[in-house]
């Protein structure tokens, strides 16, 4: 089936695919200088280009070319794995690009049998590339936030298939070595393998470009949903997340509104920079003392919101733990201790329903009364609070009033 395919033609196709991949990725890198993965992948495709060129000119350059080509291919694979590590926010020492190929060349010089048999040379290459392919497949799917990227799973599958194919090359070179003609392997399975390299190079070039695009879109989305100062969800993102879960919310789920007490005094006394630092420190501490399932967002100014779902939690105890931690933690601003407290009101789905607007209004009502009752406290919303608020507004201008006087007005 593959007898009509010419090895030299396949090498030319492989060279051209690597050339296009290197040029395209270099363009992407130029446009995305903040993405180091693009730089590593450009380097990887460039090394692959050199390796393919060396193989194509093996008859002209001499018997040591297979070893030299293998060393360059090792460098290309270090570039690929460095790219995926960089994509996941990890660093790879640059000296690996010199150390690994250098050690191989030294070994090849001392032990010519490593490379002088094309089958054995292909086996060594394929074994290393197989490990790298599986490592990259794991990295692209397991990296933080990568599962949200549409291209992550397809890229991982492509890499896994490539690793399996390279593993099969190791098997064939051991069990059914290809005949060697003019220093080149001539077998149907070997031609098929070279074609797989061609298609894999093309698919990986496309995949890595799309991954960079997906990551850029992800960063843009996260930036649009994140409060610039505190790093938690902004109002729009918080409301969107709440609306997605409220439909399935259990009656025990609660929405809490938190407001920093006398925050204006912090700004007036210490300055707005100190006020900003207080908001940042508050968000960090609150987040540390909330369950991982909690949704936490800044609604604006010094007002924050928390959504706690599910059974098995004492929601008031969780909120009170946050309140106490804030109240008893002195916040340092340029050597000046700043103490402040928070008032919290919360409403349950059982009490206020599954409408975000109703939940928010109820929790805000409880928070408002927590401030009126002295601040630095946690109050659960009760329907009677609405009545108290309305009657209090009605009695403005009548002087002091009591619960009994409000009751007399009602009845």
Poorly predicted segments: 394-411
Which strand order spans the largest sheet, edge to edge or round the barrel? Answer: 4-5-3-8-9
CATH topology of the largest domain: Rhopdopsin 7-helix transmembrane proteins
Strand-residue fraction? 5-15%
- Helix/strand/pairing category: alpha+beta
Q: What is the overall shape?
A: elongated
SSE topology string? HHHHHHHEEHHEHHEEHEEEHHEHH
Measured distance between first and last alpha carbons: 97 Å
Indicate the percent of residues in helices.
Answer: 55-70%
Radius of gyration of CA atoms, rounded to a whole number: 32 Å
Number of strands: 9
Total number of domains:
2
The first-level CATH class of the largest domain is given as Mainly Alpha
**Major sheet summary line:** 5 strands, mixed
Average of pLDDT: 87
Tally of separate helices: 16
CATH arch. level architecture of the largest domain: Up-down Bundle
Concise structural overview:
Helix content is 64%, strand content 9%. The chain has helices at residues 7-31, 36-56, 58-61, 65-87, 96-110, 118-142, 152-175, 188-225, 235-246, 263-270, 272-288, 315-327, 349-352, 356-372, 384-394, 403-410, and strands at residues 180-181, 184-185, 254-260, 295-300, 303-308, 331-333, 336-338, 342-348, 378-380.
Description of the molecule:
The protein is α+β, with helices and mostly antiparallel strands and 411 residues long. It has two domains: 7-224, Rhopdopsin 7-helix transmembrane proteins; 235-380, Alpha-Beta Plaits, CATH 3.30.70. Helix content is 64%, strand content 9%. It is built from 16 helices and nine strands. The strands form three sheets. A five-stranded mixed sheet has the order 4-5-3-8-9, sandwiched between helices. Strands 1-2 form a two-stranded antiparallel sheet. α10 (263-270) packs across α11. It is elongated, with a radius of gyration of 32 Å. Residues 394-411 have low confidence and may be disordered.
